Amino acid sequence: MYHPLCMLRVLALVHFVAFTLSCGAQVPVRPAEPEFPELEVRASLDRYREPTITTRRFKQEDLQPLIDALSPGFTVDVPGRSVEDRPLWRVSWGEGPTTVLLWSQMHGDEPTATAALFDLFNWLRGSGDGLDTLRQMFATQLQLTFLPMLNPDGAARFDRRNALGIDLNRDALHLTSPEAQLLKNERDRLDADWGFNLHDQGIYYSAGFPAEKGCVLSILAPAYDWEKSMNDKREDATQVIALMNALWQKDVPDQVGRYNDDFEPRAFGDNLQKWGTRTILIESGGYPGDPEKQEIRRLNLLGLIAGLHGIATGSYETHSVGEYWEIPENQSNGMHELILENVGIERGGKRYVMDVGMRRSETPVGPDNREFTSRAYISDLGDLHTFGAFNRLDLAGKRVEVGKEYPGELTSKHITTLSPGELYAQGYTAVRSAAPLPHHPSADRLRLLSGRERLSGSIFIGGATDLLVYDEAGQLEFVVANGRVVFID
């Protein structure tokens, strides 16, 4: 049974709607946000690459002239100092209502994003390239605060930890380190809406497992509690990641991984998310033929510009949380530098067939650790078909011999005069010098030993082993010298 008063209200509403429509009134529609100028941004990236940064092992003093040259347009100050009294820089740009905090190299040996931030500084002060409207929109919508090279003491040694031996990314609550104190103070001062936590990871991560491809980049919207809850702000972070990933897939398809989101109560990313800052972790991994991570640096810059556009315009909302979860979870040891399949190994008068995996490690050279030598070692043996590799060869039916070290200690000049082909013919794959030779021209074809380094005489886990591989006719087909495959002409 209806009430007469209810019927009168319904009739009144009907008459009001009819009157509104007859007057031509319209419901307000939110204006379309400017689309991301992808082609123009991509074309601009190399133009703004900072030319003085070409390797991974730069120091704070290398960046000081770049910091000094940022004004005008940027505000630069020193709100804190490191354990060893190095300046901790704060760089600010833009006057918008949305606050974004970006920090890099809280681990001193993770410099890729620091290089990308200096590229971004160049890009932000660029002009006349068709992107000035985009920059102006950033300036009016965003307030960007950068803490580049948050751990300059670690960078001086190319070491993960700071001068106290503390991992800054496990100091978010105790705040022992001045560097951690600064990061926490900046988050609180800004009450930052967004945070970009920029790192490097090992080059042997894979995107998913069983592995096919390595992780060029890994991402995470960190959890803020043990239950891995998903509130609105964490959802926002996943959507911005999905936006960036959609672009990266055009460059490195199936090579972006998602970190496990187990809660780490001491980490900055997890705590910033807990404190209300939408936090995005980006980790630069490995890319074949890019040992100094210059291509990955470019992808960082592309992702940051696209992510900032998504935040400034709200266009990240067109991406779903589901897209984020579709990114495969990365695996820390899913990749090898080289996998040799079906290698026949003689032991105790018997022949065993197995796969041989190799990876590389770096050893710093010199007092400032700017140079390094690279050593290949056997990383795994057995059935490796579920692992990925940057290079993979099947040795079925081939004969394998272990390489030998050429006798004597040689000068750099003497090594240059040697013929690798003639050495291979005698079973030699390695030579010894008095001192490390990080840039020697023969390093692509021979293993260069120095100091206490020794060539392994057999195939075992961890061994610095070289191999000579012969075809079924007994002809030397190729050599694996210090993990590099050298085919015989």
Strand tally, please?
21
Radius of gyration, taken over Cα atoms and rounded to an integer in Å: 28 Å
- Helical content stands at 25-40%
Overall pLDDT level: 93
Strand order of the largest sheet: 1-2-4-3-5-9-7-8
Please tell me about this protein's structure.
- The chain is 29% helix and 27% strand.
- It has helices at 4-22, 38-44, 60-68, 112-124, 132-141, 152-157, 178-190, 232-251, 268-275, 294-313, 321-325, 412-417, 420-425, and strands at residues 75-81, 87-93, 98-104, 142-147, 194-200, 206-207, 217-220, 256-258, 278-284, 330-331, 335-347, 350-365, 371-382, 388-394, 399-402, 404-410, 428-433, 447-449, 467-470, 476-481, 484-487.
- The strands form 5 sheets. Strands 1-2-4-3-5-9-7-8 form an 8-stranded mixed sheet, sandwiched between helices. It has a 4-stranded mixed sheet with strand order 13-12-11-14, with no helix packed on it.
- Strand 1 (75-81) and strand 2 (87-93) form a beta hairpin.
- It is globular and about 75 Å long.
- Mean pLDDT is 93; it is low at 1-31.
Quick structural gist:
By secondary structure, the protein is α/β, with parallel strands linked by helices.
